[in-house]
Design a protein that fits this description.
By secondary structure, the chain is mainly beta. It has one domain: PK beta-barrel domain-like (M1 Pyruvate Kinase, Domain 3). The chain is about 10% helix and about 35% strand. The protein has three helices and 13 strands. The two termini are about 30 Å apart.
Amino acid sequence: MSVLRESRFGAEITWMGMVPAGDGIQAEPRETLDLGFHGITGERHEGAERASCVRVKNLYPVGTDIRNVRQLTILSEEELRGIANEMGLNHVDPRYLGASIVIRGIPDFTFVPPASRLQGPDGVTLTIDMENRPCVLPGREIEKDHSGYGPKFKSAAENRRGITAWVERPGQLKLGDSLRLFVPSQRGWLAEE
């Protein structure tokens, strides 16, 4: 029996981009993405390994080499609309958030279980790591074009920031492609924090 089951939810890719290697987080729009085991060639988050950051500082000193499970940032079009509404904007451009992929069709996307898979038409498969918690960097990008709105991002993006993912099986994705969602076939964790 498989440990992953296909869910009743699927998604359509409505936007794609890549963040060029360097200091910024702003993504450049793309019509296709060629995904290897390393992620996207030339992308800021490319690689099988990465230096640990503040998100895992309770596990490792910042800068420790660890497995790169943050090769991609995937956002929900529906959640982006919620962020924009809360900020008082008509639209939040996914470029500002360093997005790799924006999808439409999976409810409560930011909280899809870790280890779920999104599979594209040619078999390309992305493994969901976890929620991508909001930070101040996208707000700085938003502020450049929408003065006074950048500081509103972090609170507006709470529970809507999407997920990080890594490439389990290489392949290509195109705008408009459909993705199938597979989720772990296990019950929810009952332990209290």
